[in-house]
């Protein structure tokens, strides 16, 4: 078995249809005042105190049935079923006639009070009632328990005596007292509320039977200090923008009459055009549109008169049945999508900052033009709302086309109006001065580019079969023949088309006249151009001849300059080279001096280093020589006398020579017997060598006898004898003279043998002996071409004659030169080393006896 159920409504619904929908305190007051407007009130007084707001009106009021069946009936609106004005008193018939439609139709506007304060007290009375009906509501009771039903919250009702408390002492109306305010209203907020309420009623309409007044006692003193009404809190709320709208600026008006839509544009009081067309909208049959373009001057005047900038005041407002629909036109709102479009071309489109105006519709079709539940959410997106958008697009584009094209010159370039593009900037610059002018449009009227663009607007209108041109500005289509010289002549075709479509005989005649004048002017211009061309050619020929002469003269002057320049450059080049040569010479001398100084320093350093090296070598060689001496002395152990050592050395020398000859014989091609005999000789020689080696280890002494000899001759003959026994040596004796000495010749033999033996060991092949005398002395200079003395002995020549000193790989005992020196010493003579490579490349000695 089926059961019928019912919805239950929570008490929390109060917030959904009230506080949550209205997020702005100004909108809350706006909704309550709008209810007074729909109640046919002529006057509304808003009294604001520290903890209460009282809104009083002198409308038709309510009786208990109205309160019970309408005011307390959530979401019910008598405005929808046309029962709102049933049994209305005759006092309100004139108002009903003026206000044929209602501003609200949702039945939830009274819940706006919850946004403002906790408590609501409503006192209301109809014309016929004798007492006032009073109800009291504590909105917080709805928030205690959301499980409680909406209808379970009690609303207190009582009656009160009438005390003429309604505006203008009327005996009817409604008083809404809201206490327990959620905030204390500041002065700035109250002034903002006043300006917000100014826009409640359409300033473009002709409604004069509704007023709003604000009373706030605590702000009276501050108001008294202000001179301008728009900066005061107390007083009647006037839509003073109507004063600004009377400015002579560019304005478009569009309205309906019967089946037609009329559109007209005025520019600072001058009609630009008026047209008529069939109303193509299905849902909009009663509307009017007014849009003003605000140039710089108009914006400045608006700010001075209103105390607020136009952009902060708003732009294009929407009114339904005479009351504003939010948020259209609010500062920052782009419901009309103007600013979005302007972003695509700042100089081609109008934005919310550029316009001020309204679209007002009158309708009973609440479904198609329904506002959103949120009081500032605009219209629901219905077919009717879309038609309003299309209406705005059509009207705003007409105004935009005129402003951008005629007043800004935006089409001058892209439409190619002029023969020379330079005129675009010229005429646009001329129009800039028009931005600060709100009294007259003479700049645009006189601007050739603006008039050409205006002609294009009118041509576009006449070409649209759905549009009937009722009037247009004839001055804007009048051109002087000379003005047409700068524009393309297509303008004549456009003017002719306008004349034909509008049946304007005057314009047609003017076009014909212009065409004739232009043809004549063209002919004159062509003739003048031909004459000018002939003159130009003559001038060109003369200029060519003059130019040729000038070129010849300049060529001659150029050559002179070049020659002078060449001479000057040659002189400068010579001077430069001379300077460079002098500088190079100085640099060379400096370099040579530096090189010389560096070379001297280097040589000095090398010499010093060499001296240091020589000193080191000398010390080392002396040490080596001393070591050899010590080694020799240690070997001989000093067992022989000096004479014995010298004698043994001579024996060793002779025997050694004999051994050499024997070895040569043994290696020659002789028979065996002879070789055996020679070998026996060699054995005896070897024994003699052994005996001399034994003797050198023992004491030995010998005596000899002196003889008187011719020493130079003796020396010569002795070398000749040696030459026979040493065929590999070549001897040359120079400077032989006679000089006799009493001397032991063996001493001389031993001295000379030692010298020759050393030369032989030094690989010498030639020996040179120079004999000379100085005073009573015989000088013997001995040279060979052997390997010479070792460098150590050259640096230490005295060590050559010391015992045991030798620097040779040849066989020897190191006593030969020591023996020579001692024997010469015994002969009262001397021997000195005179160097290598003096006469021959080998060693050289000088003997003085």
Automatic annotation (TrEMBL):
Pfam families, alphabetized: HATPase_c, HATPase_c_3
Domain of life: Bacteria
Keyword Secreted recorded: no
InterPro entries (UniProt xref): HATPase_C_sf, HATPase_dom
GO molecular function: kinase activity
UniProt feature coiled coil, ranges: none
Keywords: Kinase, Transferase
Residue ranges constituting the Histidine kinase/HSP90-like ATPase domain according to the UniProt record: 746-846
Keyword Disulfide bond found: no
Protein's UniProt name: Histidine kinase-, DNA gyrase B-, and HSP90-like ATPase
Species whose genome carries this gene: Myroides guanonis
């Amino acid at each position: 078995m089926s059961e019928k159920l019912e919805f239950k409504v929570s008490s929390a619904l109060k917030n959904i249809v009230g506080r949550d929908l209205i997020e702005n305190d100004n909108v809350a007051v706006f909704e309550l005042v709008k209810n007074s407007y729909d109640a046919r009130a002529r006057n509304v007084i808003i009294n604001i105190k520290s903890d209460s707001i009282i809104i009083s009106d002198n409308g038709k009021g309510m009786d208990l049935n109205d309160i019970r069946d309408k005011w307390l009936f959530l979401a019910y609106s008598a405005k929808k079923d046309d029962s709102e004005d049933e049994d209305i008193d005759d006092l309100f018939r004139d108002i009903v006639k003026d206000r044929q439609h209602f501003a609200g139709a949702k039945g939830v506007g009274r819940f706006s009070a919850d946004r403002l304060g906790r408590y609501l007290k409503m006192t209301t009375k109809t014309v016929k009632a004798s007492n006032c009906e009073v109800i009291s509501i504590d909105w917080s009771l709805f928030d205690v328990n959301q499980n409680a039903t909406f209808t379970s919250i009690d609303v207190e009702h009582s009656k009160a005596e009438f005390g003429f408390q309604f505006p203008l002492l009327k005996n009817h109306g409604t008083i809404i007292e809201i206490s327990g305010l959620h905030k204390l209203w500041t002065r700035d907020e109250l002034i903002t509320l006043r300006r917000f309420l100014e826009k409640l009623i359409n300033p473009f309409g002709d409604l004069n039977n509704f007023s709003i007044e604000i009373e706030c006692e605590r702000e009276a003193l501050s108001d008294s200090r202000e001179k301008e009404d728009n900066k005061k809190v107390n007083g009647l709320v006037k839509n003073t923008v109507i004063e600004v709208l009377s400015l002579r600026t560019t304005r478009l008006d569009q309205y309906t009459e019967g089946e037609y839509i009329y559109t007209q544009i005025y520019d600072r009081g001058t009609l630009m055009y008026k047209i008529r067309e069939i109303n193509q909208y299905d849902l909009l049959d009663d509307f009017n549109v007014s849009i003003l373009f605000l140039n710089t001057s108009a914006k400045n005047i608006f700010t001075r008169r209103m105390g607020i900038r136009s952009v902060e005041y708003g732009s294009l407002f929407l009114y339904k049945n005479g009351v504003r629909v939010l948020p259209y036109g609010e500062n920052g709102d782009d419901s009309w999508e103007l600013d979005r479009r302007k972003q695509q071309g700042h100089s081609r489109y109008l934005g919310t900052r550029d316009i001020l105006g309204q679209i007002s519709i009158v309708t009973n079709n609440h479904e198609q033009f329904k506002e959103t539940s949120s009081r500032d959410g605009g219209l629901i997106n219905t077919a009717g709302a879309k038609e309003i958008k299309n209406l705005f697009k059509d009207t705003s584009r007409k105004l935009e086309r005129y402003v951008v094209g005629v007043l800004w010159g935006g089409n001058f370039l892209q439409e190619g109006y002029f023969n020379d593009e330079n005129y675009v900037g010229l005429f646009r610059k001329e129009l800039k001065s028009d931005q600060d002018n709100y009294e007259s449009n003479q700049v645009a009227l006189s601007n050739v580019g603006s008039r050409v663009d205006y002609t294009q607007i009118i041509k576009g209108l006449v070409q649209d079969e759905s549009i009937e041109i009722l009037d247009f500005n004839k001055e804007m289509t009048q051109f002087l023949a000379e003005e047409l010289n700068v524009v393309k002549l297509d303008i004549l075709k456009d003017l002719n088309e306008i004349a034909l479509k509008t049946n304007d005989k005057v314009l047609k005649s003017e076009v014909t006249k212009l065409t004739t004048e232009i043809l004549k002017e063209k002919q004159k211009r062509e003739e003048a151009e031909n004459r000018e061309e002939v003159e130009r050619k003559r001038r060109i020929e003369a200029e060519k001849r003059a130019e040729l002469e000038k070129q010849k003269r300049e060529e001659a002057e150029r050559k002179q300059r070049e020659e002078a320049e060449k001479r000057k450059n040659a002189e400068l080049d010579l001077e430069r080279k001379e300077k460079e040569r002098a500088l190079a010479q100085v640099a060379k001398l400096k370099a040579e001096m530096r090189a010389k100084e560096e070379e001297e320093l280097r040589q000095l350093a090398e010499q010093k280093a060499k001296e240091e090296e020589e000193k080191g070598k000398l010390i080392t060689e002396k040490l080596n020589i001393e070591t050899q001496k010590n080694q020799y002395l240690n070997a001989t152990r000093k067992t022989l006398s000096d004479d014995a050592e010298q004698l043994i050395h001579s024996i060793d020398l002779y025997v050694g020579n004999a051994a050499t000859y024997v070895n040569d014989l043994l290696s020659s091609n002789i028979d065996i017997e002879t070789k055996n005999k020679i070998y026996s000789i060699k054995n005896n020689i070897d024994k003699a060598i052994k005996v001399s080696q034994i003797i050198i280890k023992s004491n030995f002494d010998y005596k000899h006898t002196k003889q008187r000899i011719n020493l130079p001759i003796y020396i010569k003959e002795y070398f000749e004898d040696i030459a026979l026994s040493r065929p590999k040596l070549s001897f040359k004796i120079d400077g032989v003279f006679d000089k006799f000495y009493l001397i032991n010749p063996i001493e001389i033999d031993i001295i000379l043998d030692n010298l020759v033996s050393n030369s032989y060991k030094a690989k010498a092949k030639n020996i040179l002996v120079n004999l000379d005398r100085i005073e009573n002395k015989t000088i013997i200079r001995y040279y060979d071409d052997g390997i010479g003395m070792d460098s150590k002995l050259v640096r230490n020549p005295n060590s050559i004659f010391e015992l045991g000193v030798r620097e040779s790989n040849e066989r020897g005992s190191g006593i030969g030169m020591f023996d020579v020196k001692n024997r010469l010493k015994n002969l009262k003579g001397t021997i000195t080393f005179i160097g290598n490579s003096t006469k021959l490349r080998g060693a050289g000695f000088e003997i003085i006896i």
